[in-house]
């Protein structure tokens, strides 16, 4: 299969009609399309995927799914695909043409509408040759996909030898492309960014492995047999359903109708959810625009922010009030703190009065008598002579009962409670009062400053809220935000209903399955059922053998390609393709039989592994489709680049199209290694960021033409 020509019409940066001819003679199977970053190499690769698959491009690669999701939906994504310059230039013409429709005849209106469609549409056309379509003679095939950004209608025209064919009408254009041109599940192996294919070496999760395993199964030709087996199982189910006894048939019919209704309901709810998601997205965009307007008008605070500031103000006011109460309590002690010397004199007076108290004196005299009697009785025990005994008794007496030089005058005569309160206040003033007082002052300053800031913000916001423009914008935003809340609530309700019916579908499906096992197969269909059963058993055996065969073949091909591309001859000594049920995984081992974790390989080695895997898969697929490679030599060193250029790309496919960045990914010396294999060469020129086109140059002067073009940049 060859692509003879590709025509881009107002697709992204490609303004107007831009044809590329890939027809070559001999064994020059490589085409080169070169241009600087941002000139449109990736856009060209996107055009091929979109031209073949349209909205189904989400199944080709996650990056397209991500681009469409970020745009909001497929319709909005397609609006961005049309060339901006073409849209700008067509606006005035569209207004004039629309005005001309009035009063025209049917034929004239049709002519004007066709001109309007042409001005508001972009398209991608691919022309193929050397196709093999069962039971259909085909020299050339053309696929043209067109999208109108005004009507949001997409059209796919498929011509076989210049004419429409009943086959494309019967099976549908999307199924025809998927079944007879290139299955979307394996398109990523023919349209790829060589820098990003390292992701094949970083597959970890079960979901990623399952998705890649499906692609492997499609490439290796296993899927068509599993699909055949599934078809036979469905046929057996239909036979059993048809042959059921009357009572079981009635139950089965009732359950099937109920199942069909539930599935339609789920589908309806899915459509509702899609519409709600799109509506919510649009309202959020509009709400964000109103918020931007509020910021430009000087009212950047949302109502939620204002409510939160008011709550903070109330809390701070309460904290400040509590601090004031504590501060007032501290102020009551301030006079005592300022008269610290007087407080010390009071303390001394109290202590003197306590020591001169009659009750205290009596108590001390009793204590002294008890000690004196004890020493007298225990004199011999302590080994005291008379002199020492007398001295010791006198010492104790002078300590406990000192002679009062002056009589203490009773000035205060505090009660016990009054003394305790005084000493407590005195200790507080001496130790923690000053520190606590300073902390209270600092806390009050901090809280008052925060309160003033918040109050200032609130006053500013509330004054601006009185502005009629801001108030109107605020009301519009509030309405949108309320609508979004209602839509989210409605979405949650729909999800709940959907889940209920999905549970019901599972329950009914189990009942249908159990009932179908009980039905009796009529004699007429018994042989069909038995034949299908035998075929399914044989298919199970055949699929298992095919997997083993493909396993060995794929292991050999990956091993051969890896060691052919690697400059380390012993880098990989063994490749093991692991097949477990529906999952297919690939393991690498070094020359010491140690498992190689692909995640731990360098980016260059990961790219070489992914490149070798792609080559092996392309060979195993037996699908002769052109291969398009963006950034073909990114992350490769000189030795690996030479292997890739001389050994890999010329043998990858009968038609290979490369999108290199000259002088960075591919220099003149490296280009010389492949020059005799290059049949077509194009440079992407760019007049401005919305106007790129192609210039064909002779392959042998590609770099001269490129260097010359750079002098005018």
Walk me through the structure.
- This protein has 713 residues and is of the alpha/beta class.
- The protein has a domain at 244-299 and 467-520: Helix Hairpins (Orthogonal Bundle), CATH 1.10.287.
- It has helices at 41-53, 62-71, 74-81, 84-100, 106-119, 166-171, 173-181, 206-219, 223-242, 246-296, 303-332, 334-338, 340-355, 358-377, 379-382, 386-400, 416-430, 433-465, 468-518, 523-565, 603-621, 638-652, 668-674, 702-710; strands at residues 2-11, 14-21, 30-34, 121-129, 140-148, 153-160, 191-193, 574-580, 583-589, 595-596, 627-630, 656-659, 678-688, 691-697.
- The strands form three sheets. Strands 7-11-12-3-13-14 form a six-stranded mixed sheet, with helices on both faces. It has a five-stranded antiparallel sheet with strand order 2-1-4-5-6. It has a three-stranded antiparallel sheet with strand order 8-9-10.
- Strand 5 and strand 6 form a beta hairpin.
- Helix 10 (246-296) packs antiparallel against helix 19 (468-518), helix 11 runs antiparallel to helix 18 (433-465) and helix 22 runs parallel beside helix 23 (668-674).
- It is elongated.
- It starts with a strand and ends with a helix.
- The relative contact order is 0.13.
- The mean pLDDT is 80.
């Amino acid at each position: 299969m060859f692509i003879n020509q590709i025509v881009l019409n107002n697709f992204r940066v490609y303004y107007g009609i831009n044809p590329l001819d890939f027809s070559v003679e001999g064994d020059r199977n490589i085409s080169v399309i070169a241009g600087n970053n941002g000139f449109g190499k990736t856009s060209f690769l996107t055009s091929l995927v979109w031209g073949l698959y349209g909205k189904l491009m989400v199944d080709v690669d996650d990056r397209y799914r991500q681009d469409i999701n970020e745009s909001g939906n497929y319709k909005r994504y397609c609006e961005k695909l049309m060339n901006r310059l073409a849209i700008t230039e067509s606006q005035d013409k569209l207004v004039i043409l629309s005005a001309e429709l009035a009063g025209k005849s049917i034929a004239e209106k049709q002519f004007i509408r066709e001109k309007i469609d042409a001005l508001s549409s972009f398209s991608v056309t691919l022309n193929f040759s050397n196709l093999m379509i069962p039971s259909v003679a085909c020299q050339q095939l053309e696929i043209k996909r067109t999208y109108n950004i005004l009507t949001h209608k997409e059209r796919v025209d498929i011509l076989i030898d210049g004419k429409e064919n009943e086959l494309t009408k019967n099976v549908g254009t999307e199924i025809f492309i998927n079944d007879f041109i290139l299955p979307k599940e394996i398109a990523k192996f023919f349209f790829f960014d060589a820098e990003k294919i390292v992701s094949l070496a970083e597959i970890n999760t079960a979901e990623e492995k399952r998705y890649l395993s499906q692609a492997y199964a499609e490439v290796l030709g296993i899927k068509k047999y599993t699909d055949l087996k599934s078809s036979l199982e469905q046929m057996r189910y239909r036979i059993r359903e048809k042959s059921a006894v009357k009572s079981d048939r009635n139950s089965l019919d009732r359950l099937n109708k109920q199942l069909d209704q539930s599935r339609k309901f789920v589908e309806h709810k899915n459509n509702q959810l899609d519409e709600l998601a799109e509506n919510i997205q649009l309202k959020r965009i509009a709400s964000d625009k109103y918020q931007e307007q509020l910021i430009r008008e000087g009212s950047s605070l949302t109502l939620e922010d204002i409510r939160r500031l008011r709550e903070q103000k109330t809390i701070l006011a309460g904290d400040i009030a509590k601090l004031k109460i504590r501060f007032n309590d501290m102020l009551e002690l301030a006079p005592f703190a300022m008269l610290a010397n007087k407080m010390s004199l009071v303390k001394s007076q109290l202590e003197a009065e306590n020591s001169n108290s009659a009750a205290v004196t009596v108590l001390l005299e009793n204590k002294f008598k008890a000690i004196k009697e004890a020493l007298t009785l225990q004199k011999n025990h302590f080994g005291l002579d008379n002199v020492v005994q007398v001295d010791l008794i006198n010492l104790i007496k002078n300590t406990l009962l000192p002679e009062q030089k002056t009589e203490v005058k009773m000035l205060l005569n505090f009660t016990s409670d009054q003394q305790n309160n005084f000493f407590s206040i005195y200790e507080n003033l001496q130790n923690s009062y000053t520190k606590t007082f300073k902390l209270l002052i600092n806390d009050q300053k901090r809280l008052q400053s925060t309160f003033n800031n918040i109050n200032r913000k609130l006053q500013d916001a509330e004054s601006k809220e009185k502005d009629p423009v801001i108030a109107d914008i605020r009301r519009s935003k509030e309405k949108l935000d309320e609508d979004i809340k209602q839509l989210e609530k409605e979405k949650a309700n729909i999800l709940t209903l959907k889940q209920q019916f999905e549970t019901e579908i599972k329950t009914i499906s189990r009942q249908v399955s159990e009932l179908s096992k009980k039905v009796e197969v009529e004699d007429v269909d018994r042989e069909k059922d038995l034949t299908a059963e035998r075929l399914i058993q044989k298919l199970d055996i055949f699929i298992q053998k095919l997997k083993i065969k493909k396993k060995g073949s794929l292991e050999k091909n990956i091993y051969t390609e890896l060691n052919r591309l690697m400059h380390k001859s012993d880098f990989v000594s063994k490749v093991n393709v692991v097949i477990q049920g529906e999952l297919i995984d690939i393991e690498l081992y070094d020359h010491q039989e140690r498992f190689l974790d692909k995640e731990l390989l360098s980016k260059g080695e990961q790219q070489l592994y992914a490149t070798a895997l792609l080559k092996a898969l392309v060979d195993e697929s037996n699908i002769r489709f052109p291969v398009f490679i963006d950034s073909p030599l990114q992350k490769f060193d000189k030795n690996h680049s030479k292997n890739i250029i001389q050994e890999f790309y010329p043998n990858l496919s009968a038609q290979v199209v490369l999108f290199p960045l000259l002088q960075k990914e591919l220099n003149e010396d490296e280009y010389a290694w492949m020059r005799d294999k290059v049949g077509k060469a194009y440079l992407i020129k760019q007049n401005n960021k919305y106007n790129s086109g192609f210039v064909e140059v002779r392959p042998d002067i590609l770099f001269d033409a490129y260097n010359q073009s750079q002098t005018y940049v």
